[in-house]
Amino acid sequence: MNLYIALLIMLAAALFVAIAGMAVGAIMGPSRPDKVKNANYECGCDPTPNRGNQARFPVKYYLTAMMFIIFDIEVVFLYPWAVSFMEQGKFGMLAMMLFVELLAVPFIYVWARRGFDWN
Predict the structure, then answer these.
(1) Any idea what DSSP says for residue 56?
(2) DSSP secondary structure string for all residues of 4-54
(3) Tens digits of per-residue pLDDT, 7-30?
(4) What does pTM read for this prediction?
(5) Are the C-beta atoms of residues 74 and 103 closer than 8 Å to each other?
(6) Quick one: CA dihedral 85, 88, 93, 97, positive or negative?
(7) Do 88 and 81 touch, CB atoms closer than 8 A?
(8) Domains, the chain, with CATH or none
């Protein structure tokens, strides 16, 4: 139980610093709201209700976001596996090979569809 006391103290200190920073900013920060500051920001363009085809994002935007998520998750799982590689044995190696193969499928699909070309 004593191991968790240090963690609880650190969590309480982080929570205190976060709340104190927000409180000091709210109390001491300038507050001069106007119409421009309260308006939604949309990439520097004036927001209009019906923009037609211009309101749609290209599919490459979503593909890039999905690729980032997929490969970010891959790194999150590969690093701890690499650290404990020797203790894993054959089962750990086979499980990671299956994991990498499953992640290779979307990579090959995007590569075949020329998703990495930015032209």
Answers:
(1) S
(2) HHHHHHHHHHHHHHHHHHHHHHHHHS-----HHHHSPP-TTSPP-S--GGG
(3) 999 999 999 999 999 999 999 988
(4) 0.44
(5) yes
(6) negative
(7) yes
(8) 3-113 (1.20.58.1610)
